[in-house]
């Protein structure tokens, strides 16, 4: 694969992966569970909402891996950097909607989900080589 094509696919996978992560987490956190928050949500909503947020990260990592044809981890690194920057900005500006351990756990589950999606795409039997 030419380097120009590889760079284009990396940028495309990063943009699509990030946008799908934003879309699916917003869908699961704000629309389906109507503002998932540690202080206002029930324990069952927190459990199911946390799994939905983790699932959205898995889907995002999976999509990004399929776009870059499984041999490039730059999109996942950039998406992970985006998640870490978002988490540190929320911590710095004190915009947590719950305790710090809960919010940082949600963000760390996003990180794990992105990388689990990448691993799943690498093991997916119909993915391009």
The SSE order reads HHHH
Secondary structural class = mainly alpha
How many H/I helical runs?
Answer: 4
Largest sheet: none
Proportion in β-strands: under 5%
The poorly predicted ranges are: none
Considering DSSP H and I runs of 4 or more, what fraction of the residues is helical?
over 70%
Domains, number:
1
End-to-end gap: 11 Å
Please give the radius of gyration in angstroms.
Answer: 16 Å
Give the overall shape, derived from the CA principal axes.
elongated
Q: What is the tally of beta strands? A: 0
Averaged pLDDT:
87
Name a few traits of the molecule.
77% helix, mainly alpha, transmembrane, transmembrane helix, membrane, 129 residues, elongated
Task: Give the topology, please.
Elements: H1 3-32, H2 43-67, H3 74-93, H4 100-123
Helix pairs in contact: 1-2, 1-3, 2-4, 3-4
Q: What this model shows, in words?
A:
Helices cover 77% and strands 0% of the residues. The protein has helices at residues 3-32, 43-67, 74-93, 100-123. It is elongated and about 50 Å long. The model has no long low-confidence stretch (mean pLDDT 87).
């Amino acid at each position: 694969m030419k380097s120009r094509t590889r760079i284009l696919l990396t940028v495309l996978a990063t943009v699509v992966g990030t946008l799908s992560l934003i879309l699916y987490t917003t869908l699961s956190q704000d629309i389906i569970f109507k503002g998932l928050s540690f202080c206002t949500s029930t324990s069952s909503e927190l459990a199911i909402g946390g799994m939905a947020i983790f699932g959205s990260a898995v889907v995002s990592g999976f999509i990004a891996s399929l776009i870059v044809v499984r041999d490039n981890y730059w999109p996942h690194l950039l998406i992970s950097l985006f998640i870490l920057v978002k988490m540190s900005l929320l911590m710095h500006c004190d915009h947590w909607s719950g305790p710090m351990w809960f919010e940082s756990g949600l963000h760390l589950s996003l990180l794990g989900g992105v990388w689990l999606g990448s691993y799943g795409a690498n093991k997916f039997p119909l993915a391009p080589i």
